[in-house]
User: Fold Terpene synthase from Catellatospora methionotrophica.
Amino acid sequence: MPQNVTFDLPFPLRTSPHLEHARAANLSWVREHRLVDGPDATDWYGSWDMAGLAALGYPHARDAGALTLCADVMAFFFLFDDQFDGPLGRRPDEVARTCQTFIDAVHEPRSTRGGNRCLRAFRELWERSLDGTGAGWRARAAHEWEYYFATYAHEAINRCRGLPADMESFLEVRRGMSGTGVPVSLGERAAGIDVPPAAFHSPQLRIMRTITVDVTLMCNDVYSLEKEAARGDMDNFVLVVAHENALSRADAVERTRRAVGERTARFRQLADEVPQMGTALGLTAAEQDTVRIYVEVMAAWMGGYHEWETRTLRYLTADDVVPASKPGYLEALL
Assistant:
């Protein structure tokens, strides 16, 4: 049922002209790091279309290299996440130890060498991401990556509990685990913008950033509902809505659709307030333009990610390729 659900996101779709370059480069990168190795894993990975996600989600990427980095980060997210859809994902203490090695790599990328192929690939990604960025972006992105890795242990705790958490607790884990703060920061980097702090931390843009994170994870949780429910995953927005409100899954999906609509309407309302906010802050014309692009980056990520979800085979064919009775990956990377 969820695969037929549509969200009317009011954001224009664009596709980066660097798609084909990113597709070839991304496949080369995952093979080089042996994140996909055998023919079955390569075919399964190819059906996800990570470069397509990057091209739709990051149309503002300033060049082919910037888009390729986005595609590689997307590849890491999904391949890493799948590693916890198996025995490891039910051992919170081991998950915490595993993810700590990645957190260490975030904060000390040059002093933590060795490790498994997934860790080596992440370290290379992180170093590429830092190239040419300012101190503010680096600090924010480091925190977002730490948050992302740290929440996997709490997902494992929730999975072992066997019941969805309350919405407040769920969102604390899901907003981190979804990693969607990182993609928004990645969008800033790809577009080559540096938003003035006074504007970045305005109520309007902070709320809009949270909406961007929430809309992305809410749509994702609808499309991945059947896959995750079959595996006993509890950190899914639809499952939490159904549990808290004693709703059927169909009704919970519909309530999720309405919640997405409310958030996107709020996003547009706040976007209309941004120019006046910039004027009040005394932003220059160039700074106002940077803020405008930042708003477009967030909107493009929501719209592009949703469009990709309706096209990818990652969710449509998961039951056939990686049935719930087996780990959710074809090759162990950790």
Q: What stands out?
A: DSSP finds 16 helices and no strands in the chain.
